[in-house]
Write a structure and sequence with these properties.
Chain lengths: ~80, ~150
C-alpha cells in the first residue's frame, strides 16, 4: 500500500489531499504510478502530467524513473513558493 | 537549528543564540524575509503559508548540509513560519556565523536561494479579499542555478 499526497493548488484542483493505492508489481516507477492514477481518474491527466509539477518519494524530490516500493510516501506538488 | 512553526520569532533573540558562547566566529550574517504590502502589482493584505510537514525540516536540513560542505561556516539557524500571516509579519530567518564574513555572506544567500526553489512551502495571498496562489518565479530558479 502506498500513500500519495497532494499539496497547495494541485490539492485544491484535484479536490483531495491524499489517496492510497496498491502497487500492481515490483519495479514500479513513479512515472508508472502517475499513469496508474490517471487510469483510475482520467480527469487528473492534465493536472498530473503538467511539466511544472514536482514529485517526491519519502520526502526526497525525485524524477519519474525513480522506483517506488510498498509503504513509500509519494507526493505531487506545484513549484514551491516559500521564503 | 531548524524550526518550522506558526509562532513569530524575534531577530534579536536569534542573533543572541548565534553569538552565545561563540568567541571563534567574527562574522554573523542574518536575513529576515517579511510579508510585503505589494506583490506583482497586487495589494496584499495577508498570506497563508502551506507546507509539507514531513518534508520541510528534512529539506532545509539538506540545504544547510550542502552549505556546510561548500563554506567554512559554524552555526546556522533557519526558521520558517507557516499558517496565516499579515503584512509586515516575519516569514523566514536565516542566520550564519563564520570566522570571516565571506563564508557567512555566501552561505546565507545560498541557503535562501535554495530554500526558495526546493523547500516545500506554498504561499496563498489574500488580495483585496480574494485568495490566489503565488506563482513560482523563473528568476528564483535562475538565481539558485548560479551556485
Amino acid at each position: 500500500m502506498l500513500t500519495v499526497l497532494f499539496f497547495a493548488r494541485l490539492r485544491e484542483q484535484l479536490g483531495q489531499s491524499s489517496v492510497t493505492i496498491e502497487l500492481p508489481r515490483d519495479d514500479f516507477t513513479l512515472g508508472q504510478l502517475t499513469e496508474l492514477l490517471i487510469e483510475q481518474q482520467p480527469d487528473w491527466q492534465k493536472l498530473l502530467e503538467n511539466t511544472s509539477i514536482l514529485t517526491s518519494v519519502n520526502q526526497q524530490m525525485v524524477d519519474n524513473d525513480h522506483v517506488i516500493n510498498d509503504g513509500d510516501e509519494v507526493a505531487y506538488f506545484p513549484p514551491v513558493t516559500g521564503g | 537549528m531548524i524550526r518550522v512553526s506558526e509562532p513569530d520569532f524575534n531577530v534579536a533573540d536569534e542573533i543572541a543564540l548565534l553569538e552565545a558562547d561563540n568567541s571563534q566566529d567574527g562574522a554573523v550574517v542574518t536575513f529576515t524575509g517579511r510579508v510585503r504590502q505589494q506583490n506583482d502589482g497586487h495589494d496584499v493584505t495577508g498570506l497563508f503559508l502551506e507546507h509539507y510537514p514531513a518534508m520541510t525540516e528534512k529539506s532545509l536540513l539538506g540545504i544547510v548540509e550542502q552549505a556546510k560542505e561548500k563554506w567554512r561556516i559554524n552555526r546556522v539557524s533557519v526558521i520558517h513560519r507557516v499558517g496565516q500571516l499579515y503584512v509586515g509579519d516575519n516569514i523566514v530567518f536565516v542566520g550564519v556565523t563564520s570566522k570571516h564574513r565571506g563564508d557567512a555572506f555566501a552561505a546565507a544567500e545560498y541557503i535562501m536561494d535554495y530554500l526558495k526553489v526546493q523547500a516545500p512551502f506554498w504561499k496563498k495571498e489574500t488580495r483585496s479579499g480574494q485568495d490566489a496562489w503565488v506563482e513560482a518565479k523563473t528568476s528564483d530558479q535562475q538565481k539558485a542555478q548560479q551556485w
